[in-house]
Amino acid sequence: PDAGPGAGSGARRLHAEGGLRASSRPAKSPGPGPLRQDVTLRVQAGPRYVMGHVHLRGAPPELDTALQTVQREFEGGAFSEGRLQALERRLTDLASRQGWLGASATSAFDRPAAGGAMDVGVQFQPGQRPVIGRVAPDAGFSRGARRVLNAAFRPLVGQHWSDDAAESVYQRLLDTGLF
Fold it and tell me: Residue 131 — very low, low, confident or very high, per pLDDT cuts 50/70/90?
């Protein structure tokens, strides 16, 4: 029998907790019967790494405060590639909600041999930030509903797209009971 697939779960758990050099190896030895084997799982934790300072470059000034809040949430916690991907995702999601469509974040880090804090550099590309040019309700809405939609969304025309602003208008429209 092969103990390999299950043997890696201990190391994967340690990786998620900052033990990037953790390893696990099964060692088989004869068991008490002819068809039995004893398996010893040797797990080595290795040094532990934590997320050091996150250096964010390329963010537009309008996003600085919000992005810094996100980066501070990650600093000091266990370092893992999964957490690093989560950081990148949170940064780009936040930018998208503020209207920076196509935002991306890529990170780089140097792993010290002995463990400890790993500083991370994140290069942020904000993408485009479109301005709402006009409101065009679908022709399937009644004439009265189109008039209400135009009136509700008109204050957003000329503004940068923002999920929060659009969601606010949408909620107010739902509250009217017409939609």
Answer: very high
Q: Confirm whether pTM is higher than 0.85.
A: no
Per the CB < 8 A criterion, the answer to whether 74 and 60 are in contact is no
pLDDT digits (tens, 9 = 90+) for 83-97: 899 999 999 999 998
